[in-house]
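TA notes, week 10

Several of you asked for a full example with nothing omitted. So below is the full record: structure tokens for the whole chain, then the designed sequence directly under it. When grading your own attempts, check the secondary structure regions first.
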């Protein structure tokens, strides 16, 4: 009888534990879904801005060179802010980090709504130092998802990105056409305020699994947001430096093309604001399909190292196709493999890097990942403006082809696929 009683108690304990785990899992998934919603909203406002700024800059007298300077300014600001934002998120939690990003976005759009001179157009970019909604959302998802499902969970943020791209581009082009740039900017500011309310209501203070650190003197010193040693030490973890170099070198040509695309759309494709919005919406649809229905299946069947090599190989072929495209109709066919390579490349590298460091440092690592994109936006306009003015649009594609082929061959010769596969 006593043995039966003990067995029943054990079973009851296991059942209670299982129910608690299920409840905890449901709570984590709810937070992740809310994070997806916030991300989609914030990306919508960002792409709405992309439908305003190029045409506002042109109206204020900016040529291709000065528009490149404007883009470089944003890149420098976010390059400096990315790692600090990630560190801030690790130290003060997800709610504080996402709230900071949303408040900065509100200020960003309010300044854009009153930008009536070249100087104001530069000034309104300053709040971008805190605008890192995607790294913040990635940190939440990385913290709350299982390691073996992390790439799939992160890819769903790309689905949100696609939704935001479609909604923001279409809405921005329509509002700009019918109501003007000021109204569109104020609309986006109000939308960011809604995102802020969602963050404050649904996102927990912290999403980290570890218990808070002790408040010792040495720990207080290491908890400084501006401690560069604490940020750069992540590069010492195995595989991190190599992955970062691949992320920078392979991503540079496509980053240059993306930075210059608004200029290419206006001058090479001769698109009007509304037409440009439709094209960006098409980008979003393609990305939604790839990140929502393709990447998850690929990560379930193939190793991350194999998928990284695949994305680099496809990127090289995309560059070759871009070198010979003549019109926007041809470009629409190139968009499919282009978005595939970009989506897989970004998701896989982010997943590999976050798995290489402790979960207490995922925010800082994702901030460093964001700084790579900011670095590309910093040097991209200068390089892109020079290439566009002197060699035309085809030069972007040729450089992308050569660089990615070189990276692909380098990784194969280093035995990257074999080595990384063993680690996994």
């Amino acid at each position: 009888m006593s043995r039966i009683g003990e067995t029943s108690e054990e079973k009851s304990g296991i059942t209670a534990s299982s129910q608690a785990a299920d409840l905890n899992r449901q709570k984590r998934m709810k937070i992740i879904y809310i994070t997806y919603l916030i991300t989609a909203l914030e990306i919508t406002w960002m792409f709405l801005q992309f439908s305003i700024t190029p045409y506002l800059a042109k109206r204020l007298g900016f040529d291709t060179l000065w528009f490149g300077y404007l883009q470089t300014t944003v890149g420098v600001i976010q390059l400096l802010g990315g790692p600090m934002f990630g560190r801030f998120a690790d130290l003060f939690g997800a709610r504080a980090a996402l709230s900071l990003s949303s408040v900065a976005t509100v200020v960003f759009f309010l300044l854009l709504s009153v930008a009536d001179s070249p100087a104001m157009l530069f000034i309104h970019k300053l709040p971008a130092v805190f605008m890192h909604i995607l790294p913040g959302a990635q940190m939440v998802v990385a913290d709350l998802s299982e390691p073996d499902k992390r790439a799939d969970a992160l890819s769903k943020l790309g689905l949100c990105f696609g939704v935001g791209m479609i909604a923001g581009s279409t809405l921005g082009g329509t509002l700009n056409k019918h109501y003007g740039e000021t109204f569109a900017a104020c609309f986006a500011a109000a939308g960011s305020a809604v995102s802020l309310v969602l963050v404050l209501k649904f996102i927990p203070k912290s999403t980290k699994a570890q218990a808070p650190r002790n408040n010792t003197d040495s720990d207080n010193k290491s908890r400084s947001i501006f401690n560069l040693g604490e940020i750069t030490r992540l590069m010492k973890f195995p595989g991190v430096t190599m992955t970062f170099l691949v992320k920078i070198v392979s991503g540079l040509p496509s980053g240059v093309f993306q930075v210059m695309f608004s200029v290419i759309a206006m001058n090479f494709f001769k698109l009007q604001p509304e037409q440009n919005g439709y094209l960006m919406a098409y980008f979003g649809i393609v990305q939604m399909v790839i990140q929502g229905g393709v990447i998850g299946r690929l990560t379930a069947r193939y190793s991350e190292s194999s998928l990284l090599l695949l994305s680099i190989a496809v990127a090289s072929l995309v560059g070759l196709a871009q070198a010979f495209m003549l019109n926007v109709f041809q470009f629409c066919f190139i968009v499919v493999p282009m978005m595939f390579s970009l989506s897989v490349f970004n998701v896989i590298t982010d997943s590999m890097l976050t798995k290489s460091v402790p979960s207490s440092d995922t925010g800082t690592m994702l901030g460093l990942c964001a700084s790579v994109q900011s670095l590309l936006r910093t040097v991209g306009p200068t390089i892109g403006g020079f290439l566009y003015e002197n060699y035309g649009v085809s030069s972007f594609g040729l450089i992308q082809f050569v660089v990615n082929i070189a990276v692909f061959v380098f990784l194969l010769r280093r035995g990257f696929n074999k080595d990384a596969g063993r680690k996994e």
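Confidence is low (pLDDT under 50) at residues 211-221, 419-424. Use that as a sanity check on your answer.
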